[in-house]
Amino acid sequence: LVSLKGNGIPEPGVVLKFLLNLVFGDEKLQKLEYLTDFYYKYGLFRYETKIYIFDPKLAHTAINKLEKGAEDYLKNSPLKETFLGSSHKSPEVRRAIASIFRKTSIEERGKLIISDVDNLSEKILRKSEKQENINITELSLQFAMDVVGHVLLDLNLFALEGRQMKLLDCLTTILHRCYALGEISDQGQEFIQANKDFEKLTTSILEDALNKEERPGEEKTFVKKLHEVCGFAQARDNMKLFLMAGSETTASTIPVILFLLTAYPELHHQIQSEADQNMEQLCKDPTISLPKTEALMKEVLRTYPIAPFISRRTFYNVTLGSVEIPANSDLIVFTWGIHRSENVWEKAKQFLPSRFLEDGLSHGGMYIPFGAGSRICIGQHLAWLELKLAVAILLHKFNFSKVPETPDLRFVVDWAHAVVHPDKDMIFKVTSRI
Ligand code: HEM
């Protein structure tokens, strides 16, 4: 079952591979989750061409010491020129962008996010009044893109005459149909066209943003600062990154949260009560804490981390702990397996948001939904605020419930961009409460 080839990294032998195929079929994420527990005492294993790491010390060393180096898997992606996967130009650009992010007070922008949630609520209300079931996946993607538009790009994407829907079409073709579902190839005509359209759209959006005059006393917009730091081409490429990384992730998390709330009615009720009690205060100060809602969000990102792994690459031979890793190895810090391992979490396979309300929760630094170290997610505070406001306001305004059209919760993986999506759009019945 275990073969320890060469440098002592275990990998499944023929019998185990056969059994894995028998039990899990094509579900690679589930196979890898199983192997994480199976090989836990070794701290890592090799599967196909990659090395999966989950020992806390090894994982943190890999995250902090090694480069990202995703150029290979991103070579046809619109993100190939961004700092996301790059090991070479990344440090300066990332530092410059992170510094603009820090100066942009996300908390102050909470009011903008609230107006985007109100907009989303309006759309839900209009459909529910017509007795239509609601496709939360579609609406969440529009909402998440509005937030990136307002909060990061300082643009009202609704005012951009039809460009929001075109952008969404491009994202759906590139990220869902090609990378996650594999319906189309990244060399095919549809993908190439969507890439060209995305390039044109982001170019024109950037031009508009740069031409927009500030009112006297108004601070320079984020995009203008980005343009000053890295010039037009890089500003556009990194805008693509924010549009993709900033909307896909939160947009996939919202339907998962709502699905779990419909599966746990008592939890739905508790989150709703917290939202009702705090709504007035939350609208005045979007940064107030909502402990139960935040514990729910933490548990969702533990059990279903939307970024299921963090990739790194070795450009020379390295020693991690006592293990020699050869040059040019792809390492995967396997968040999905770590977050769902009984070796790290008590009752790991159970969905228990209350664990995050208890004192002394122990996970040995292995709660890493946003990564860690110098390449930690640049948008984590924005994402957190956005999810908190969306969940609280939606639950205050609506009741969500399953209908026969609601699919089961199953995920497909975009291995290139390291994100998971529910495989089908989430459909719910929604009734208004106010
Ligand atoms: C639930 C929401 C989100 C999750 C779970 C998430 C998670 C992650 C993770 C795990 C990484 C990789 C860290 C690493 O390699 O060590 C990452 C990187 C990144 N994220 Fe997020 N993210 C989310 C939302 C956002 C948002 C809203 C933005 C907004 C712009 C964003 C922008 C980025 C960028 C630019 C990077 C690349 C950082 C780098 O390579 O240095 N993310 N994110």
TrEMBL record:
Claim: Repeat is one of the keywords in the record: no
Gene3D superfamilies the record matches: Cytochrome P450 (1.10.630.10)
Coiled-coil ranges (or none): none
Top-rank taxon: Eukaryota
This protein's UniProt keywords: Heme, Iron, Metal-binding, Monooxygenase, Oxidoreductase, Signal
Pfam families referenced in this protein's UniProt entry, alphabetically: p450
Binding annotation for heme: 377
Family to which the UniProt record says this protein belongs: Belongs to the cytochrome P450 family.
Name by which UniProt lists this protein: Cytochrome P450
